[in-house]
Amino acid sequence: MSKLTAFVDESGNSGIKIFNGTDKFHWVGVMLSSYDVELAKDELHTLLKKVSFTELHAGELGLSRINLIARGLIKIYKNIDAKFVFSRVEREHVATMMFVDLLFDSVNNKAAPRELYNTKFNRLLVTYAMAKTMTTEHRKRFWNVLGLLDRGGDKQFQELIQEIKQHCIDNPKYIPDIEMFSAIFDYAIAHPIETLEHDILVAERERIRRNGLRDDSDDVFKNSAKYRSANLATFNIAIGTLNHYLRRENSKICKLIHDEQNEFYKQLKNSFDNNTKVIDSSELYSDPVIQTADYFTGDIEFVSSADNIGIQLVDLAIWLCKRVYDMEQVLEGECKELYQFIAERGIIDGFSLKDLEYTLAKASR
């Protein structure tokens, strides 16, 4: 059984305000290796001297300098037998996913049939319906409402859902059952606190005020907005993809080293502690199948990329992938060869409207 170290970096200018900034996607990249990556430090520094740099930072190097050292980078990646896992999430549709999670789960909404949310294919179909039917303005307003729950946001939520309901009635092309969707919206309008799980949040915060924190997991109630961020959504997808990769390859991650993180340090650590212990084995048309997992045997560490070449190497891999996937840039020369090497040794998962359309089309064949 292979024992791996995982090096993790992220990119996407995200945070809680998912509609700010210029990046359409948030990325998490993971480089896996069973070797002591730090042993390649001298070789990397010698390579970087050729372009008058001391640190491998793709955004500062740019394509022209990377092109000059690409073959040397391929050699380093080969020597440490690097493999890659990428998670890519369309930031706007983090709001779509949260909308579906809250309104269409029968636990929150008694008008929603249990199988509508619990069966993966149905949940994807509902998510696609709302992604195609809701406008960007609807998503922005919904995201803002989630941040106003402590200040009377339930009234704004009711008004917004009434608008979305009428919008779906007027634009039913992607809605599989307009009567059922209308009933679900009506229940949400009548029970905003329950639908938005604000009753649970208030009760838990009161418990914390009276009795103090039970453990670190209570942070989800203190800083609930951070757990809705694109950063956490993309990181959680990456952990799920890693669990499946490790099971398939009969491997374990003994240590996960993440680029230093100030804003989401505690939330990423809590998500790591919780999500590495379970694996979602649900089939497309099955009920949820959540099993225990033990593919991560070590802890998560946060380090400065300046002090860790593993983080620098995965930063470069993300940067090249973003240019191909997000900017649709055609790479040339040695950079093209470097990207192809990374792509051949990598897998990519995530959530976007385009990915969702592909998954549903494939399932419907």
Question: How would you describe the overall organization of this protein?
Answer:
36% of the residues are buried. The protein has a six-stranded mixed beta sheet with strand order 7-4-1-2-3-8. The chain is built from 17 helices and eight strands. With 365 residues, it is of the alpha/beta class. The model has no long low-confidence stretch (mean pLDDT 93). Helix 1 crosses helix 2, helix 5 crosses helix 17 (353-363) and helix 13 runs parallel beside helix 14. The chain is globular and about 65 Å long.
For the largest beta-sheet, the strand count, sense and barrel status come to: 6 strands, mixed
Helix run count = 17
Q: What radius of gyration results from the CA coordinates?
A: 22 Å
The helicity comes to: 55-70%
User: In percent, how much strand structure appears in the residues?
Assistant: 5-15%
> Would you identify the regions where 5 or more consecutive residues have pLDDT less than 50?
none
Number of beta strands? 8
Distance between the termini: 37 Å
Which term fits the overall shape?
globular
Q: What order do the strands of the largest sheet run in, or round the barrel if closed?
A: 7-4-1-2-3-8
Quick take:
This protein has 365 residues and is α/β, with parallel strands linked by helices. The chain contains 17 helices and 8 strands. The chain has helices at 41-49, 58-79, 92-103, 114-118, 120-133, 136-146, 153-170, 178-190, 192-195, 198-211, 219-222, 224-227, 230-249, 265-275, 309-325, 333-344, 353-363, and strands at residues 2-11, 25-33, 83-90, 251-259, 278-280, 290-292, 300-303, 346-351.
